[in-house]
């Protein structure tokens, strides 16, 4: 992979930064025009489309690993990234190099400039639309056997939703991004069910009754056969094991394995895929999802990205498992959004021997004062900068044998990795 920085990459990144600062634009009109001008590259390969409140990134990684284990050349498009923008666009789990990424983005932006005016940035394509078009183009030109496409936000109006996939997947539904998607589980489920296409099979994860009802209704209208993971895996003992830790990852693995089985039953490019489910799940890797990292001072960092109320319950399961092993961790946490923080801090306060507040370098990151106000009374906390806690392969607050959990915003996870290993981190994160 080419990770050197081409001379003009900084200028291109600055323009993308401006697009990022303009925020999200929920419409399919612009991305359709861009795609058509590029020759509709997303139509050139089979696709798996994955939406959900939580678990969609891990499920993408699992399905990618299963497909690659079968011998398929895989494209995977996910967001956000941890350190480098090209992490979002991967082939066989290798991020696109900077020179190739610059070439793709330059071509997409030239099309955008022909179709839209930079004098009217309100109507100019968004950062995510540009990235999505670049991913579709890259996968087509690299002739992937399958594209695993993660929804950015919601489903119905997400830029990725111009595709007609071979299967649609909805992992979980929770109350997150309510300002965009609705105030109830049913409303949010209906938005995510917007990825369902006519006669394309759908796999649903372990959903609440009202969420499942909304998805079932959408599938019925689209004449799309619906498969529910709960019908195939009645309890945790029946769920497949995988290389990613945590009970919630076994639920994601159940969704991924059901998806692979449904794809295999349709034959074509996915014929025989079910034979590679176990191998793929055993080999899967996905950063910042209860990822254990040995530190130099004989401590262990567990890098996590639980960042919303549903994720807080998954975090509780993992922290409870640590407690049952006799471990009370140091927890460093930084969060975007009050409702997210309230749920996470309530859980963390039950299990942490020390809570350290960090403020991610993001516009919506909560301040120290806001985090302290949301913490249950009587719980001791401290403030710090990421660089004051993580440096030179160590957690500077940890002693021999300590376990440190870093959780909250996925943007914080990227900053922790950057500081821990002195690796540069770009500023190209989403504003959602």
Describe the 3D structure.
With 432 residues, the protein is α/β, with parallel strands linked by helices. It has 16 helices and 16 strands. It folds into two domains: 9-283, Mur-like, catalytic domain (UDP-N-acetylmuramoyl-L-alanine:D-glutamate ligase), CATH 3.40.1190; 291-421, Protein-Tyrosine Phosphatase, Chain A, CATH 3.90.190.20. The chain has an eight-stranded mixed beta sheet, sandwiched between helices. It has a six-stranded mixed beta sheet with strand order 9-10-16-11-12-13, sandwiched between helices. Strands 14-15 form a two-stranded antiparallel sheet.
The fourth-level CATH homologous superfamily of the largest domain is Mur-like, catalytic domain
What level of helicity do the residues show? 40-55%
CATH class of the largest domain: Alpha Beta
Which band does the percent of strand residues land in? 5-15%
CATH topology-level fold name of the largest domain: UDP-N-acetylmuramoyl-L-alanine:D-glutamate ligase
Cα distance, first to last residue? Answer: 29 Å
Overall number of strands: 16
Largest sheet: 8 strands, mixed
Shape from CA axes?
globular
The number of helical segments is 16
* SS-based class: alpha/beta
Instruction: Compute the number of structural domains.
Output: 2
Mean pLDDT: 93
Low-confidence parts: none
């Amino acid at each position: 992979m080419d990770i050197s920085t081409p001379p003009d990459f900084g200028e291109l990144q600055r323009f993308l930064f401006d697009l990022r600062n303009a925020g999200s634009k929920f419409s399919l009109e612009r991305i359709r025009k861009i795609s058509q001008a590029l020759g509709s590259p997303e139509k050139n390969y089979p696709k798996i489309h994955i939406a959900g409140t939580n678990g969609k990134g891990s499920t993408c990684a699992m399905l990618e690993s299963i497909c690659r284990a079968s011998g398929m050349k895989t494209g995977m498009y996910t967001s956000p990234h941890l350190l480098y923008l090209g992490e979002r666009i991967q082939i066989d789990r290798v991020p696109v190099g900077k020179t190739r990424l610059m070439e793709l983005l330059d071509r997409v932006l030239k099309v955008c400039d022909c179709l839209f005016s930079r004098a009217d940035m309100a109507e100019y394509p968004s950062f995510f639309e540009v990235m999505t078009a670049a991913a579709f183009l890259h996968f087509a030109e690299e002739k992937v056997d399958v594209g695993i496409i993660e929804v950015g936000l919601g489903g119905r109006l997400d830029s990725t939703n111009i595709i007609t996939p071979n299967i649609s997947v909805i992992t979980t539904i929770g109350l997150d991004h309510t300002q965009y998607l609705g105030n109830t589980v049913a409303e949010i489920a209906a938005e995510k069910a917007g990825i369902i296409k006519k006669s394309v099979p759908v796999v649903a994860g372990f959903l609440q009754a009202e969420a499942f009802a909304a998805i079932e209704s959408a599938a019925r209208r689209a004449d799309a056969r619906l498969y529910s993971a709960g019908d195939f895996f009645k309890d945790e003992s029946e769920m497949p094991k995988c290389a990613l830790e945590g009970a919630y990852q076994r639920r994601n693995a159940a969704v991924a394995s059901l998806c692979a089985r449904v794809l295999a039953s349709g034959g074509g490019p996915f014929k025989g895929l079910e034979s590679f489910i176990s191998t793929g799940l055993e080999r899967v890797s996905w950063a910042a999802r209860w990822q254990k990292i040995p530190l130099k001072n004989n401590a262990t960092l567990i890098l996590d990205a639980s960042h919303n109320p549903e994720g807080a319950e998954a975090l509780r399961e993992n922290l409870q498992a640590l407690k049952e092993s006799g471990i009370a961790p140091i927890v460093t946490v930084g969060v975007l959004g009050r409702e997210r923080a309230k749920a996470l801090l309530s859980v963390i306060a039950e299990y942490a021997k020390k809570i350290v507040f960090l403020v991610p370098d993001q516009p919506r990151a909560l301040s120290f004062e806001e985090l302290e106000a949301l913490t249950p009374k009587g719980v001791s906390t401290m403030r710090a900068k990421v660089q004051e806690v993580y440096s030179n392969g160590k957690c500077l607050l940890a002693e021999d044998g300590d376990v440190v959990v870093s959780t909250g915003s996925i943007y914080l996870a990227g900053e922790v990795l950057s500081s821990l290993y002195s690796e540069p981190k770009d500023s190209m994160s989403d504003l959602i």
